[in-house]
């Protein structure tokens, strides 16, 4: 045999979702399977009578009061999908539940269709719509009108109930643009859908695909009359491969998987459950005793073809998830077919474990194949094989002793041998369409080490109550899985979920803390916003001298490549002028206090922070800078180049450094009161808010002002500055600075920003006037007036794009304006992510991919959307039906479901007849398999 097919020919299973008997989702399904739980409901006579079962049925000693039901099949979150209550009532619950499972499958794959760079296909099938027949159709006037107007009118009922619209409804509601096909092959429907989806991916018809099936029939609360040789069990258990097997039990469920090409999946960092190495579909044709009978030849051939397409030998397969209907005819034929296919490449005995999910809850019909696939993918993922239930004594017609198979009866660790773990999954449909898939465990991926830095977790929902439920569910998940990689969790929530109106964020560095904060809804750590209209305008604020601190930006420099690159660029431009690396100087308390280091350092950090915001898709509609912060605004507005601005700032700082030292004093009083205090040696450096000014001047003048204000009970605070900026003490620097400005070309601003000098929008004349920039050193900073100008337009959000929260506090003194810092000493990354999250809360579109640039991230499985289901249901109209049948599982007119299986002898005759007919076919099959393998 050749090597396995290359990875480019393999298909990754990256998302799982479903609803099953006794299990609300895939996680509960796995728990039940591992625990060996049987999820078949036993009904009381009262329940059956209430559901419409006739007393005659209940009196029949062969009536079996069992079925695997699905909870809340009558409920649906109509509002989530934009359906009216009436539309929801008229829609087949199979369509409704499949639609919800499709959303959960995409979420489990962390695939948001709105941001997925490719097309998504849908391949799906459902069972006969008994809701239309039993519920809607019991109202004669509704059905009569529908039939009368069929194809000309009645589309509301048609589109919600015909099988033709199952897949296309999903594509429409979720905006999926790949192939959208309904697959209908009876019991093998959903596994055939998986095969067709895989083929569509391999032929590049789509880049991801939803595949699966749903089967829910009504009324759910019903049993069946057992007849010897029929498919339905005598005791309400599915005893696959056991001597006491009498048939299966029917049940209801839905399963959906998300598939991608393996190479794409690995590149995208997907959470891969398992890999499809090969898959095949065929039909029995006429080579069997009847249309409904299974065929050894057909089943054997499809299994062998799947092996050949996968490029594997049977001895490398450790488990087979069988079709396993537990019928007297079906089980022996299935094992005979499996043995025949395996014997083409292995002579091993008992080396491959065998099981079937039908033993847990019976036959899910159109959803059966994908359910077996989900079980097997989870077994590969967890390295454990769940038990197949009710197997005690082998069926005497099955020669297990001379076969490669052994039924697994307890939860078994799947030991890893020389080959990767591999499994087969079979599904065979009435009518002869057979499907088999070869699965392999996902490729080994190096796990990302846990990060200690802060992470931004985002949640959203359509309603406030759904958001609360989603929050609770995520907290419970993190509590249950403390080993969770929080960075991967953040990545998944940001990129793998739809974004809705009601939003919540938390920034944290551990799963345990995240769970605590989310459970408590900690008000200073967990932020929430409801509905909004559009994205608000964003204003960048750049602080001036006094905001600096030693090692500012160091944490961002470590974790954010864009910030690091921009800061490094500034440092390299400044190196010849400063005679040192700015980044080294910023580490030292003494050096950062020197004006010639402080000013370029503040500029460089603020410029780098702005570049970080730009990289995430956050761009300001306007800006305001405080003192030297206006230079950052000017560079971003392209008034001057980065190189020229840095040269000006160094020259400006050096000129200031030569001036006599002075002091600055923040005082809580309005500018009108501060004016009265002015005299020799004292100036108003800044009018920061309606009740806060900064005085600047000689040390003597500052000391006198401080005493005077304290005597009046006015709060004051000395600022960390080396000189008396924006006072008369700066005037000696104006003339030499003007000469330096003559070497700098100035241009009209491309982004509007507020002038410090006027407190108004800067004009093109001012921005290009060298005297404006020279006088800027001396003039009062009119920040308060500038904020008032900005506040003329409501709804703006102001981000302090620099160290500290000084400007944020000033803005908040102007009223209800929303402002927040983005770089705080001691928690730089946390503050920055909180600011980003709060922007997202307000409806700002964030480039989440850029947030994780340069970092290895993997998508992870997280709880899905908490649908708020309500009952949307048309009750069946009670009539007086023929009590002999009443729409329940019943025998055909001949009295048997499988007329060919009339006795023990006939079962053996059928098997022997088919086996003998295979002698020539096997040789042809081996030749075909060798040819396929040589091509692969």
Give a description of the structure.
The longest helix has 21 residues. The protein folds into two domains: 493 residues, 3-Layer(aba) Sandwich (Peroxisomal Thiolase, Chain A, domain 1); 249 residues, Malonyl-Coenzyme A Acyl Carrier Protein, domain 2, CATH 3.40.366. An eleven-stranded mixed sheet has the order 7-6-8-10-1-11-18-17-12-13-15, with helices on both faces. A five-stranded parallel sheet has the order 28-23-22-29-30, with helices on both faces. The chain has a four-stranded antiparallel sheet with strand order 25-26-24-27, with helices on both faces. The protein contains 36 helices and 31 strands. Helix content is 38%, strand content 16%. With 936 residues, the chain is α/β, with parallel strands linked by helices. The chain is elongated, with a radius of gyration of 36 Å.
The CATH homology group name of the largest domain: Thiolase/Chalcone synthase
Distance separating the two termini: 10 Å
Q: Give the CATH topology of the largest domain.
A: Peroxisomal Thiolase, Chain A, domain 1
Mean pLDDT: 91
Q: Which structural class should the secondary elements be placed in?
A: alpha/beta
CATH architecture name of the largest domain: 3-Layer(aba) Sandwich
Radius of gyration: 36 Å
Shape: elongated
The number of helices is 36
Largest sheet: 11 strands, mixed
Uncertain runs with pLDDT below 50, 5 residues or more? 1-6, 880-905, 932-936
Task: Give the gist of this structure.
The protein is an alpha/beta fold. The protein has 36 helices and 31 strands.
């Amino acid at each position: 045999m050749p090597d396995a097919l290359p990875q480019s020919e393999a298909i990754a299973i990256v998302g799982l979702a479903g609803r099953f008997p006794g299990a609300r989702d895939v996680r509960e399904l796995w728990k039940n399977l591992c625990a060996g739980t049987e999820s078949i409901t036993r009904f009381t006579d009262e329940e059956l009578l209430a559901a419409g079962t006739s007393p005659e049925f209940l009196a029949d000693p062969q009536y079996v009061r069992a079925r695997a039901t699905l909870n809340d099949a009558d409920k649906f979150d109509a509002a989530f999908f934009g359906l009216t209550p009436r539309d929801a009532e008229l829609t087949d619950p199979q369509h409704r539940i499949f639609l919800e499972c499709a959303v959960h499958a995409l979420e489990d794959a962390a695939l948001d269709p709105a941001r997925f760079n490719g097309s998504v296909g849908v391949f799906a099938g459902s069972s006969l719509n008994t809701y239309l027949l039993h519920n809607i159709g019991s109202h004669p006037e509704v059905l009569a009108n529908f039939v009368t107007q069929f194809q000309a009118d009645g589309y509301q009922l048609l589109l919600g109930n015909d099988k033709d619209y199952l897949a296309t409804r999903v594509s429409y509601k979720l905006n999926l643009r790949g192939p959208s096909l309904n697959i209908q092959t009876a019991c093998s429907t959903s596994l055939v859908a998986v095969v067709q989806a895989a083929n569509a991916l391999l032929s590049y018809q789509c880049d991801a695909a939803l595949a699966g099936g749903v089967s829910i029939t009504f009324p759910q609360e019903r049993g069946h009359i057992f007849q010897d040789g029929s498919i339905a069990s005598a005791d309400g258990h599915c005893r696959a491969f056991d001597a006491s097997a009498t048939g299966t039990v029917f049940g209801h469920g839905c399963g959906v998987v998300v598939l991608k090409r393996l190479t794409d999946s690995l590149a995208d960092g997907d959470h891969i459950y398992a890999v499809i190495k090969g898959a095949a579909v065929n039909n029995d044709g006429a080579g069997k005793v009847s249309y409904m009978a299974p065929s050894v030849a057909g089943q054997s051939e499809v299994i062998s073809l799947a092996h050949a397409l996968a490029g594997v030998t049977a001895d490398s397969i450790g488990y087979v998830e069988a079709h396993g209907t537990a019928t007297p005819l079906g089980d022996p034929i299935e094992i005979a077919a499996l043995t025949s296919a395996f014997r083409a490449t292995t002579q091993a005995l008992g080396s491959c474990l065998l099981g079937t999910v039908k033993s847990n809850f019976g036959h899910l019909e159109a959803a059966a194949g994908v359910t077996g696939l989900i079980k097997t993918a989870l077994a590969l993922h967890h390295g454990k094989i769940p038990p197949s239930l009710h197997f005690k004594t082998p069926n005497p017609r099955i020669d297990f002793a001379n076969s490669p198979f052994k039924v697994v009866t307890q939860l078994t660790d799947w030991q890893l041998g020389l080959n990767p773990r591999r499994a087969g999954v079979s599904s065979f449909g009435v009518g002869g369409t057979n499907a088999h898939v070869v699965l392999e465990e996902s490729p080994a991926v190096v796990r990302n080490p846990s990060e200690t830095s802060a992470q931004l977790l985002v949640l959203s929902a359509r309603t406030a109550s759904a958001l609360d439920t989603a929050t609770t569910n995520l907290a419970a998940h993190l509590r249950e899985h403390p080993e969770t990689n929080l960075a991967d969790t953040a990545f998944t929530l940001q990129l793998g979920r739809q974004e809705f109106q009601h939003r919540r964020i938390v920034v944290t560095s551990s799963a345990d803390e995240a769970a605590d904060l989310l459970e408590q809804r900690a008000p200073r750590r967990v932020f929430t916003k409801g509905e909004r209209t559009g994205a608000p305008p964003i204003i960048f604020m750049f602080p001036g001298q006094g905001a600096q601190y030693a090692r500012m930006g160091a944490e961002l420099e470590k974790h954010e490549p864009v910030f690091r690159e921009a800061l490094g660029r500034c440092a390299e431009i400044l190196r010849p002028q400063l005679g040192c690396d700015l980044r080294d100087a910023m580490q030292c308390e003494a050096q950062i206090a020197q004006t010639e280091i402080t000013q370029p350092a503040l500029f460089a950090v603020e410029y780098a922070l702005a570049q970080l915001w730009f990289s995430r898709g956050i761009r300001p509609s306007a800006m305001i800078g405080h003192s030297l912060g206006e230079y950052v605004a000017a560079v971003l507005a392209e008034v001057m180049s980065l190189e020229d601005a840095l040269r000006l700032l160094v020259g400006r700082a050096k000129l200031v450094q030569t001036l006599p030292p002075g002091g600055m004093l923040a005082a809580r009083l309005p500018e009108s009161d501060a004016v009265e205090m002015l005299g020799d040696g004292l100036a108003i450096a800044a009018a920061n808010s309606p009740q806060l000014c900064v005085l600047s001047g000689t040390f003597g003048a500052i000391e006198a002002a401080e005493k005077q204000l304290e005597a009046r009970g006015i709060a004051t605070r000395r600022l960390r500055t080396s000189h008396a900026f924006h006072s008369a003490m700066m005037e000696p620097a104006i003339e030499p600075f003007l000469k330096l400005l003559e070497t700098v070309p100035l241009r009209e601003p491309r982004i509007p920003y507020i002038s410090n000098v006027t407190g108004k929008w800067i004009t093109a004349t001012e921005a290009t006037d060298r005297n404006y920039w020279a006088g800027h050193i001396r003039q009062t900073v009119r920040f308060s007036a500038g904020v008032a100008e900005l506040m003329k337009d409501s709804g703006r959000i102001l981000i302090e794009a620099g160290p500290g929260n000084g400007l944020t506090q000033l803005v908040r003194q102007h009223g209800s304006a929303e402002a927040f810092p983005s770089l705080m000493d001691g928690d730089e990354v946390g503050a920055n992510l909180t600011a980003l999250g709060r922007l997202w809360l307000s409806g700002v579109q964030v480039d989440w991919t850029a947030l994780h640039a340069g970092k290895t991230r993997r998508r992870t499985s997280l709880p899905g959307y908490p649908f708020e289901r309500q009952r949307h249901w048309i009750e069946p109209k009670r009539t007086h039906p023929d009590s002999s049948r009443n729409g329940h599982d019943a025998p055909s007119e001949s009295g048997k479901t499988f007329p060919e299986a009339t006795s023990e002898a006939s079962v053996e005759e059928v098997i022997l007849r088919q086996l003998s007919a295979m002698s020539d076919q096997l040789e042809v099959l081996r030749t075909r398999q060798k040819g396929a393998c040589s091509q692969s």
